[in-house]
Queue: 2 jobs
Job 1
Amino acid sequence: MERSLSGGVILSQSDIPLVEAKDLGKAFGDFVALHPLNVKVAAGEFFGVFGPNGAGKSTFIKLLTGQLRPTMGGARVLGINVRADPRMVKANVGIVPESESPPSFLTAAEYLEFVARLRNLDEIPEKVTHWLDWFGIPDKRNTLCKDLSKGQRQKVMLAGAFIHNPNLLFLDEPFVNLDPIYQRKCRNLLMEIVAEGGTIFLCTHILEVAERVCTRVAVIDRGHVLAAGTIDELKDKSDETLEDVFIRLVGSSFEEIEAMEGSEEE
């Protein structure tokens, strides 16, 4: 069984990880957003990271994808030293950041064309059309991104991450603002990617979705890893859900949450 305390090791069963962090941590002044942790994620895994707001999930993804420089430790992604060559990491993975929108001054099609050209793809018009059709927004191809709905902007961001068919995807709240139809469609696509040998690194608050797709998970709170393993390994009881596990590990109970909600209403 895999369990980890802060600074512990979150290991996959493979000896050849696509993602490897060693004592990786980040501080902003005196505030430690992510305490040193060690992670290995192998090819073909659907790895989920969960925690309450401010737990350090987004910081974790930003460190692994070169969007932030670590204060301590380091990471390798696809064998690339993230600190030394963050641009190479970004060029070879798909990333959907949290709460980020495509540039407001570009149309949906222009943004996807921009991403495709940055990645030196062939058959760009065909790829752009494919993903606009796949996400059900072909009629929005010439609409400025600032005029799209939140859900449509999220679809454009996801399309930009998928357009080059990466073998490794880092997704931070990818299902936010998506309706149930496209949550399911994206979930099925991600499962197909993993079935074909791809790897997903996911942060999400939609625990019921994650429970269906993740092969391993880590729960973090206040920058510390509380536990890691398969969902079954983290359960104390066979009838526990991932939501039950999450609430138990972060030190709250349903009764405490309900009591807090009741006091707020008063």
Note: Confidence is low (pLDDT under 50) at residues 1-14.
Job 2
Amino acid sequence: MDILTLLPFIVLIGAMFLMTRSAKKKQAAAAQMRNDMQPGTGVRTIGGMYATVKEVHDDTVLLEVAPGVHVIYAKNSIGAVLDDAEYNRIVHGDDQELDADGTVVPDDASSLTGESDSAEVAKIDLAKDDTADDADSEDAEVKDAKGVKDVKDAKDESKTDGDADSK
């Protein structure tokens, strides 16, 4: 057998080995993360619920989802163990990074354009003008009347000798 004949099979086996190896690493990291849970840490379940760990057992975890509300979850249902800062930011809305920096990001890009003079910006009047609407409606009525006349003319032109108007 030639080496070129075996090369596709060798590449295929190598790719399968690399894929299973990375999947096993991810599973081992997830299992290690679940085993490192301690009471008092914040977690996110695979369903997206945030809770605090109260007790850790062999296969289950007792979580506090609200003050005084405790539920039992399987360890496999824990999607991520969060550090305290991230858990407080998500659950309680505490943003210590913003308090430390003092930097405020604007909601729009107006401060990024460099033009701070708002007097130069032309104001657009969005109010409805009644006189313009009356003139527009009269023009529309004239156009509609002409359109009806044109349709009748088109029907008359399409008739040939001996055609009747009956349906």
Note: The longest strand covers residues 50-56.
